[in-house]
Amino acid sequence: MDMGAYKLFRKDRIRGKANKVDILLGVCYRPPNQDDEGDELFYKLLADVSKSAALALVGDFNLPDICWELSTAEKRQSRRFLECIEDNFLLQLVNERTRGGALLDLLFTDRERLVRDVV
């Protein structure tokens, strides 16, 4: 599927313990100058995959104006990203700044206990 300038480096389906749950693991890169059309393609893909297996999505999303503690953002594109994350019931698990005082590298999951001990 075309995702605009987004880069999906890897997408794996992992069989859970005793074949109880599949985990979809995705690694993404969102360029800082991503246009709205590319973002919307990504949001559609995310909505599709978040309906199936347990999801873990990691990557550099280049949205430094998002405050994850309050779920707020200054820029329209960032607010739309937050809306997509909320619409798909995803949790963002990285709490410490990752680069130059900004929180750019993120980890999302749709199940609270799927990922532990994020450092």
TrEMBL record:
Highest rank taxon of the organism: Eukaryota
Family annotation (InterPro entries): Endo/exonu/phosph_ase_sf, Endo/exonuclease/phosphatase
Gene3D superfamilies per UniProt: Endonuclease/exonuclease/phosphatase
Organism: Willisornis vidua
Ranges of residues in domain Endonuclease/exonuclease/phosphatase: 25-111
Pfam family, one: Exo_endo_phos_2
Record's protein name: Endonuclease/exonuclease/phosphatase domain-containing protein
